[in-house]
Design goal:
about 1050 residues; alpha/beta; Rossmann fold; six-stranded parallel beta sheet
Length: about 1050
């Protein structure tokens, strides 16, 4: 750069700021250089300065494109380039600055023919999930991994984890299969598979046959899974895709097998710089080693700090720094940066003595490495503030006191942006955040958010789905319309929507028909006729425009013509909502760039698959505007600094526990090279050290003796280690009850159960005039009055789902087989006819299934029904009443009704039967009698059976007494591997309890007590009220 340029002056000024160690790092331009840069010692500064020095050195004549700088994250790449632009100007854009993955991806793109396919592209997350899903769906019926119901999401996750482990460990399917054989053969020799005590069915030393069978099934499942790796790789090749995680391995393999490929990149670059070298993994390090292997003493400059290596869970290997120093021991320049420009000496002493407990440190391996940090921040050099450890009786005390500490700092003039609350898990600070928000304390929280889960975007997607359905087939979107019309950007009164829905049910017309007729709306008493008519016209316009506009152009018309954009601009959350809308529109643009003719139907299918596989479309949501108290995780705090740091919740359950669930059950003769306990502890200690060294002057570490539920907590081992330092204080704090009251009332306040505005009395009276209570309605009201109101009074149209459709098909087959038996001399139809009846039932409910669900449920029915038939056909009662409907009955003046699947009559004893599909273990839990603490109303299935007895006792039409009820489970109990029936023998207390419950619920319904919901997070109708009607 010219000596008189402004960049030259800026760069010269930057060089003058360097301390001797930093200057040595910048001036050491030739040969291998390793810089060990402790926290706050100016790592980023010397990287940028060294690149500037290379480019400005007159003798070297280095060109920007001859420098390769490799970083750990995209953010580091951007930060590096921005800093270089400020130092050396636009020439910085000619530098090759990449993450390792981006660099390898560039190599693959430049050499596609070598790497296998001309059009080879990295696989997206969605494509990866779809490939594995297709692979699983194509499995034969008897395959151990075959799933007949539900989705494959968890199976896909587990398989991908398994494949990753196999690649990491270098295990072939054949090797694992051999280990499984050896393991299973040795099961009889293992103590845990033989009885140690005599039981009713076994003697001491007998084999636990059921346990061995269960273990064998697990290992055969693993065997089946590992052999799918070959199919996965084949599918990837057929799709011209490669896995993001494989990129580095492919390039390493290419460099090893094709010298010309390697030499072409060695000729490009003369200087190599690597940032955060401690966070590189083995394969990334191998890339660097191959690139510099041409030279005996390569110009390679690495910067890192072994004490800040915190990404071992991603494969990072701190040993790479030691290996680098060993390889170039004869020529390496080693520089240690210890002048810390951030923290007080007290904090540095505490942190240094703490991290010295780690055994794997360069200072303990390499002679001459001194990592004792020295405080060099002259602004706080004379500070005598001591770091502090605070202990509290429970988390209420801890968070309340820390909130008061934060507020005191702010009252004394502290800048909120210089305060940080650091924690390990995202969920930890939520009560503290809630309290500070109530107290109007400004906070700044950065969290990743999936925009597809945002309520506003869900409403937009619902609108697109409705319009797409109406375009394909008018009227087919009616099921979506009730909810859609409640979207806040439409501004329709909820009472108007309820009235229209009721009228549609009476007239047997669709909501759109109602919206299209001003006369109908006027007669029904709708107040917002003008607005609803306008929205109807918008729907018509948007539906017609689908065929004439690109997806981008069509979406633009929706957000402008529909008032969505103006709604955002008027909202107090306009910045957040605009961010969501922009990110969603950007996604539409990126998808249409790949497929310019993409139809909205195809786009919605992509979104549906992303939701199904839990693939996020992420943005960084920043809660708070401007300056605020920072809330961030220990990992997220790396590279940042604050005047005051609160490291909260430092208990053993948060900091000292590690590990994760393995995707499959491995035999014990397969040893996975995971962390040892001590390696886990050292990794966590490094993370704790990172959090400690974010603080400039104020550092508080806190923990509690009990959680919110008064369960005992133990302080983290790292707190105990810190307490041995002479440079830290310890205090046991206990707040008074008065000090706790406000915090508990605000921070721990539960969200109120949602309430709705009901229809006017005239319309409700009309609805309830002929109302009759059924077992389903009883359970629905007990579960959630709001749900009952919408489903059974307003009768909002709802779609049938896969489980309901399958259950209906099973019920049809069973009703048919008993009805036919009674017409054919009490001889049951043969199995093939039974299966035919099942197919009939499936066809009657075909609209409930996707194509894949239909195939899986057919396969599943054909698998379980023959076994069910063979188990019971010779013992089924023949004196039965199949599927009996009992309408218009009265229990002490209360109208009741119900449909009973089957009534068995044997002499004077009557047994009522209800068929159930689904998880048997969960079903059994629903048969419990009332319990004041766990089930105050009794289980749903128990209550249903007693209701049936009450129906029949009221009808008085049977030649006997109803003494029992029975749930007939049509699917197998997993542990018992058999079909079961659960019988309830009725007591007078059972009948009395349910009778009183019927009377109580009926009276509440007549009193219109369904405006307040249950408030449960999983309740769909409560969530509808919370998010769609606010």
């Amino acid at each position: 750069m010219p000596p008189d340029s402004k960049y030259h002056q800026s760069f010269s000024a930057e060089l003058k700021k360097l301390n001797p160690a930093q200057k040595k790092a910048v001036d050491s331009l030739e040969g291998p250089v390793m810089v060990i840069a402790g926290p706050g010692t100016g790592k980023t500064q010397i990287l940028s300065a060294r690149i500037g020095k290379l480019l400005s050195h007159a003798d070297l004549q280095v060109q920007p494109h001859e420098i390769l700088c490799l970083t750990y994250t995209d953010a580091a790449t951007i930060a590096m380039r921005e800093r270089l632009v400020s130092l050396i100007g636009p020439i910085a854009y000619n530098l090759h600055i990449y993450t390792f993955h981006a660099f390898c991806n560039q190599i693959i793109q430049e050499n596609q023919e070598y790497f296998g396919f001309k059009d080879l592209q990295p696989v997206s997350d969605l494509e990866k999930f779809e490939l594995v899903e297709k692979m699983l769906m194509d499995l034969p019926v008897n395959h151990p991994l075959k799933r007949f119901k539900g989705d494959y999401h968890s199976d896909i996750i587990n398989l991908l984890k398994l494949f990753s482990i196999m690649q990491k460990e270098g295990w072939t399917p054949e090797f694992i299969s051999q280990k499984i054989d050896e393991y299973l053969k040795g099961l009889p020799d293992k103590e845990e598979f033989r009885y140690k005590k005599k039981t009713k069915d076994a003697n001491v030393g007998d084999l636990k046959v059921a346990r061995i069978r269960e273990e064998t099934e697990k290992k055969e499942r693993l065997r089946s899974a590992v052999f799918e790796l070959k199919n996965y790789r084949t599918f990837m090749m057929q799709a011209s895709r490669y896995d993001y995680d494989d990129m580095i391995n492919w390039v390493n393999d290419g460099f090893a097998k094709k010298p010309d490929l390697l030499s072409s990149y060695q000729e490009r670059y003369q200087y190599f710089l690597v940032d955060e070298y401690q966070d590189t993994n083995g394969s990334q390090n191998e890339i660097l080693k191959k690139l510099v292997s041409f030279w005996d003493n390569p110009n390679v400059f690495i910067v890192g700090d072994d004490d800040q290596s915190i990404y071992r869970f991603q494969g990072a290997n701190v040993e790479n720094m030691e290996d680098f120093a060993t390889k170039y021991s004869g020529s390496i320049t080693k520089i240690t940066l210890v002048e810390n420009y951030r923290s007080t000496q007290k904090i540095l002493n505490t942190a240094t003595s703490f991290i010295k407990r780690n055994n794997k440190r360069l200072s303990g391996i390499m002679p001459g490495i001194d990592k004792n940090l020295k405080a060099s921040n002259i602004k706080i050099g004379s500070s005598v503030t001591m770091p502090a450890i605070l202990q509290y009786p429970n988390i209420y005390h801890e968070y309340a006191d820390l909130a008061h500490e934060i507020m005191r700092l702010l009252e004394n003039g502290a800048n909120p942006s210089e305060i940080a609350v650091i924690y390990r898990q995202h969920i930890q600070p939520d009560p503290l955040l809630k309290y500070l928000n109530h107290k109007k304390v400004p906070v700044l929280v950065k969290r990743k958010e999936n925009i597809l889960s945002a309520v506003f975007i869900k409403k937009i997607i619902r609108l697109l789905s409705y319009l797409s359905k109406e375009y394909e087939k008018p009227g087919s979107g009616n099921i979506l319309l009730f909810e859609l019309l409640h979207a806040d950007f439409f501004g329709i009164n909820a009472g108007d929507i309820a009235l229209m829905t009721l009228e549609c049910h009476k007239q047997k017309i669709h909501l759109r028909d109602m919206m299209a007729s001003r006369e109908r709306m006027f007669k029904t008493g709708i107040s917002g006729i003008e607005n609803i008519s306008r929205i109807h016209d918008d729907f018509t316009f948007w539906t017609g425009a689908i065929a004439n506009l690109t997806l981008q152009g069509w979406f633009e018309k929706i957000i402008t013509r529909g008032g969505i954009l103006s709604f955002i601009l008027k909202s107090p959350d306009k910045y957040y909502l605009m961010n969501l809308l922009t990110a969603f529109f950007d996604f539409i643009k990126s998808e249409t760039a790949k497929n310019p003719s993409m139809h909205v139907r195809e786009f919605l299918l992509i979104l549906e698959k992303m939701e199904k596989h839990e693939i996020a479309l992420e943005i960084i949501r920043i809660t708070g505007i401007g300056e605020g108290v920072n809330f961030l995780t220990a990992h997220g705090s790396k590279g940042l600094e604050f005047h005051h740091v609160f490291l909260i919740g430092c208990t053993a359950n948060i900091w000292d526990s590690a590990g994760g669930r393995m995707p499959f059950s491995f035999p014990d003769n397969l040893i996975i090279k995971n962390f040892s306990d001590e390696e886990e502890a050292e990794e966590a200690r490094r993370l704790f050290y990172v959090a400690l060294t974010r603080a400039k002057e104020g550092l508080i570490i806190s923990f509690s003796n009990q959680n919110f539920n008064e369960k005992g907590l133990e302080k983290s081992r790292y707190v105990a280690e810190l307490m041995e330092s002479d440079d830290i204080t310890f205090e046991n704090r206990n707040l008074s009850e008065d000090e706790l009251v406000e915090f508990q009332s605000l921070a721990m306040m539960e969200e109120d159960a949602p309430e709705i505005e009901l229809l006017d009395k005239i319309h409700l009276d009309e609805l309830l005039k002929k109302y009759s209570l059924s077992p389903t309605h009883l359970s629905s009201y007990i579960d959630c009055p709001v749900s009952f109101y919408y489903k059974h009074l307003i009768q909002v149209p709802t779609a049938k789902n896969e489980a309901l459709g399958f259950g209906s098909a099973i019920h049809h087959a069973l009703e048919k087989i008993f009805s036919v038996m009674q017409k054919t001399n009490y001889i049951f139809p043969v199995l093939t006819e039974f299966i035919t009846y099942f197919h009939e039932g499936m066809k009657r409910n075909k609209e409930c299934f996707t194509e894949a669900e239909w195939k899986n449920r057919i396969d599943y029915g054909e698998k379980i029904l023959p076994e069910y038939y063979e188990k019971y056909v010779r013992t089924w009662h023949k004196n039965v009443l199949p599927e009996k409907h009992y309408p218009n009955l009265f229990l002490d003046g209360i109208p009741i009704n119900g449909i009973i699947d089957k009534i068995e009559i044997e002499g004077s004893a009557v047994n009522v039967v209800d068929y159930k599909t689904g998880n048997v273990e969960n079903g059994i839990k629903k048969l419990v009698r009332p319990d004041a603490e766990t089930e105050p109303y009794g289980g749903d299935y128990w209550r249903q059976l007693v209701f049936y007895k009450i129906l029949l006792d009221t009808k008085k039409s049977l030649p006997g007494i109803v003494i029992s009820g029975e749930i007939d489970f049509i699917e197998k109990h997993k542990k018992k591997d058999d079909f079961i029936k659960e019988k309830v023998i009725f007591t007078s207390e059972d009948v009395k309890f349910v009778t009183n419950l019927i009377k109580d619920v009926y009276q509440k319904i007549m009193n219109r007590e369904f405006s307040k919901g249950c408030g449960k997070e999983e309740c769909g109708w409560c969530n509808f009220v919370r998010y769609w009607m606010r």
